[in-house]
Amino acid sequence: MRPDTLEQLRVDIENLETCAELLKLGSHVKARTALIVLDHISEIFLLRECQGILEKDSLFKWVLPPKLRARDRARITRNFHEKLELLQKEDFLSPSEVTVLTISHSYRNAIYHRDTHNPSTIDILAKIGFLTVLDLFERSGDNCAIGNSAGLAVDWLKPYYGSRLSNTHIDITEARKTVADKLRTGINVSRAEATAALAEDIESRTNRLVSRIAEFTGDSLDWLDKTIRRLEFEEKHEELMDELSEPHRQVRYRIQGQNKPTIEEYEQTEASYKSSLNAALDAFSPTYTVESIRAFRSLSKQLESSHSLSELLSLYNTQDQAVNKAELYIHKVEAIIDEAVQMEIDRARGK
Questions:
Q1: From CA 231, how far away is CA 300, in angstroms rounded?
Q2: Cβ atoms within 10 A of the Cβ of 241, count?
Q3: 146, 178, 180, 299: which could join 138 in a potential S-S bond, CB 3.0 to 4.6 Å?
Q4: Residue 348: what are its φ and ψ, rounded to 5°?
């Protein structure tokens, strides 16, 4: 028996056991931790499958044209969503599994990087994520049976096999299925339960967004709309921003050199840049506006019309991404305001 294969299986099982134990405690804080671990486990499983595909593609490149370029291979290794895309193309992942893993990864990022989660939703999402990761575990990796002539300890499999456990032979494929079946016990999510929790999540988040927008009135509300528009434009048209600003940036670079620009030259390129930028902004049709964000309040009702758990999760994923983007823009707006207020305070203090 290969020690590395057995050790890998043991580590995978212990990670999954940890998640199962956390989810059965009924605490949203424990579910939050479980979701972080699950995202980690899922990416490991996805990476292993991708590595197999990449190795095969590389091995046969002298016989068949490779499907992937070098930069694609590097991107897949690094990026979670690239792994999902490849494995869905290879029919290893179903669309519903991609949806669940995408939602889990997005929620993990919010927890891990921004310390935010919805207590009433996290338990449901973590359970759905856990069941999906168990499916991945069951069918990922090599399908093989291996001998244990070295007499390696396998007592950690006893809770799953009992007296049937063999110390001389382990069927890895059977072991993954046996473990997955037992860990699924007691982890259930009904469509009604999921619908209520996910609808509450979208509703509470959109209500918070609308409340934050309500703090702006008159001219400040118009400024908010324009600022959201600009943030979205900058995100979607980074290359255009670079192209428009290039002449003025070149002039600014010369300030530190020998060939310093004149004031007239500086002001001319600055005015040209601002004029071009304003024209591009005027022609831009944003997805996110104050009114479109206010309209998010009707989103949660749409979830109640879904006919299956898969349809529910797909719709929630779309809504979650839209609300998440609006939350990000409002957060950036608040950061701009905080910075401006701090500048005024520093100015008043003579700094």
A1: 26
A2: 16
A3: 180
A4: -65, -30
CB neighbourhood size of 90 (10 A): 13
Q: Are the CB atoms for 116 and 110 separated by under 8 Å? A: yes
β partners of residue 146: 170
Which stretches of 140-190 are DSSP H helices? 158-161, 172-184
Report the distance separating Cα 234 and Cα 242, nearest Å.
Answer: 10
The length of the chain in residues reads 351
pTM: 0.78
Output phi, psi for 153, to 5 deg.
Answer: -70, 130
Q: Measured between alpha carbons, how far is 152 from 7 in angstroms, rounded to an integer?
A: 10
Domain borders along the chain are 3-187, 194-237+284-348
Max intra-chain CA distance, the chain = 88
Judge whether 104 and 129 are in contact, CB under 8 Å. yes
The DSSP line for 2-40 is -HHHHHHHHHHHHHHHHHHHHHTTT-HHHHHHHHHHHHH
Query: What angle (nearest 5°) sits at the alpha carbon of residue 252, between those of residues 248 and 255?
Result: 150
Q: CA-CA distance, 40 to 308, in Å (whole number)?
A: 27
Cα separation of 300 and 305, whole Å?
A: 10
Place of tokens 């338990």: 123
Q: Are 269 and 251 in contact (CB under 8 A)?
A: yes
Rounded Cα–Cα distance for residues 29 and 244 (Å): 47
The one-digit pLDDT tens for each residue of the chain (351 residues) are 444 678 888 999 999 999 999 999 989 999 999 999 999 999 999 999 999 888 888 887 777 777 888 888 889 989 999 999 999 999 999 999 999 999 999 888 888 777 777 787 889 999 999 999 999 999 887 776 666 555 567 788 888 887 777 766 778 888 899 999 999 998 988 999 999 999 999 999 999 999 999 998 888 999 999 999 999 999 999 999 999 999 999 999 999 888 999 999 999 999 999 999 999 999 999 999 999 999 999 999 999 888 888 899 999 999 999 998 999 999 999 999 999 888 888 888 876
